[in-house]
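hey can u check if this looks right to u? its 298 residues, i copy pasted from the old doc so theres a chance i mangled smth
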Amino acid sequence: MNVIETYNLSKYFKEKKAVDNLNLQVEEGIVFGYLGPNGAGKTTTIRLLLNLVRPTRGSAIVLGEDITKSKNYLRKIGFLPDVPNFYNYFTPREYLEFFADILNVDKKRIDEVLEIVDLKREKRRIGTFSRGMKQRLGIAQALIHNPSLLILDEPTSALDPQGRKEILDLILSLKGEKTIFFSTHILADVERVCDRVGILKEGKLLLNDTIDNLKKKYSRRTLYIEVDNPQKLFIKLKEFPWVESLSLSNKNGILVKIKDMSLPQREIPRIIFQEDLFLFKFEFLEPSLEDIFLEVVS
């Protein structure tokens, strides 16, 4: 079942196409990373899904409801904006009690969400909190009514490494319990926690796939080999037509880009044996999400 489906969803601001013919599917129970450079249209997409702006054209189905015909689905969504605002004179418990009253939520839920975000014992005022603590409190607020879908807009931007780790660990702890849709331009965050990723550029969705499939699809067919005499192996490998390019790496390493995956696995060990070389390492290199992202957006 898809929690989010969009059909040629578009939002134009005069001549600016913030979101352009977006066709996106997000399955139930996954962590979906919505990736793109600043200004790509990520926040506008979120605003469309949350009914904060109306689409110029196209439509979307969120949690089974057409966003142009109903707002009832919003009761089942928790949202954390990129820069959440708080009443700084509240403690975390007081702040969540305030929202629990507005949403008519059982006060027992407050202890549950404070435990989830590791703020249950925190007695200080929100005004004294670090940015990371405020982000965790923002996620607690988004979870207070036990939503089915959690939408997070740039949840780790402007955080220090410790704050980023706390938020990513929190997202991982919710994996499988909630469908989580979060936008970011931080590639390492997506690679760490996401099941699936969409890459957006200038309002257009360039791809939507699992990270494993992307790494297979964009594989560079690159081998890294370490031997005791890399110069000797380097010269020998230049003779073979299945070698696309060669470069020396580190003290004993060679990077070999190949045209065929099967031949090197058979031929290179034979060459190493014939040349009486000592093999330290032989591995195929996968592209990182950063490599894929740069190739796709360029």
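The two ends are 33 Å apart (CA to CA).
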